[in-house]
């Protein structure tokens, strides 16, 4: 059975006017079109709804039983429609997005301020948590989406690459390469030219650190055990304090690092990794997400020029 709200509204128009012609005028369709619609309704219900005469249209017993049902259906749909529309509008104007803490500190302030200027009616809710927790919140539906480096596919989660990022070498003003070159660090640095000193690193089990270690090994670059941490913001803080150099994603480097941190893009090879947006599979994409993604990518491009 495939009866629509339009069928029920047309049926009630005929009931109230007792005329196919006047009912057709009321609901703004042709009289033949209304007749075909009523014939379709009778065919789907397997009963006659109307007794037609030359002067008026009356109801059969089956048609009389359908009247209260049709009125209830139309009334309930017309009552709930504005509520659903308001919810939809609210969803379009709100975006709940999860980001890892380092991204929240380095990139999201610029994105947030830009969105306030360009889309003042949009409310951006930012949740800064580690990636496993963000992934769980996306799966549960508590977040519209999340951003981060998600190298593995996850059931029931859609993963979309947003942009690629490079790995960069960072060291403090007292770092080994700046000391060797009188305070200067080239903008590009080969993996083979990394200093043979202990580095500040992520925990060896971290996906990003495993990618870094693979590249070191492929380039026959020796590594010496240094300090291991669980968060990128801690790695950058330690490097800036002079504990040791570090290898981090380009998006994680704070802007305005000035003399505190020297940065060089690692080359030969350039290791580009994907930064993703994830959503729960089957979830409707919020309208606001497109505006957010456009703003985010613009900010990323500007950061690349400044680092």
Automatic annotation (TrEMBL):
<dbReference type="InterPro" id="IPR005119">
    <property type="entry name" value="LysR_subst-bd"/>
</dbReference>
<dbReference type="InterPro" id="IPR000847">
    <property type="entry name" value="LysR_HTH_N"/>
</dbReference>
<feature type="domain" description="HTH lysR-type">
    <location>
        <begin position="1"/>
        <end position="60"/>
    </location>
</feature>
<dbReference type="InterPro" id="IPR036390">
    <property type="entry name" value="WH_DNA-bd_sf"/>
</dbReference>
<dbReference type="GO" id="GO:0003700">
    <property type="term" value="F:DNA-binding transcription factor activity"/>
</dbReference>
<dbReference type="Pfam" id="PF03466">
    <property type="entry name" value="LysR_substrate"/>
</dbReference>
<dbReference type="Pfam" id="PF00126">
    <property type="entry name" value="HTH_1"/>
</dbReference>
<keyword id="KW-0805">Transcription regulation</keyword>
<keyword id="KW-0238">DNA-binding</keyword>
<dbReference type="GO" id="GO:0005829">
    <property type="term" value="C:cytosol"/>
</dbReference>
<comment type="similarity">
    <text>Belongs to the LysR transcriptional regulatory family.</text>
</comment>
<dbReference type="InterPro" id="IPR036388">
    <property type="entry name" value="WH-like_DNA-bd_sf"/>
</dbReference>
<protein>
    <submittedName>
        <fullName>DNA-binding transcriptional LysR family regulator</fullName>
    </submittedName>
</protein>
<keyword id="KW-0804">Transcription</keyword>
<dbReference type="InterPro" id="IPR050950">
    <property type="entry name" value="HTH-type_LysR_regulators"/>
</dbReference>
<dbReference type="GO" id="GO:0003677">
    <property type="term" value="F:DNA binding"/>
</dbReference>
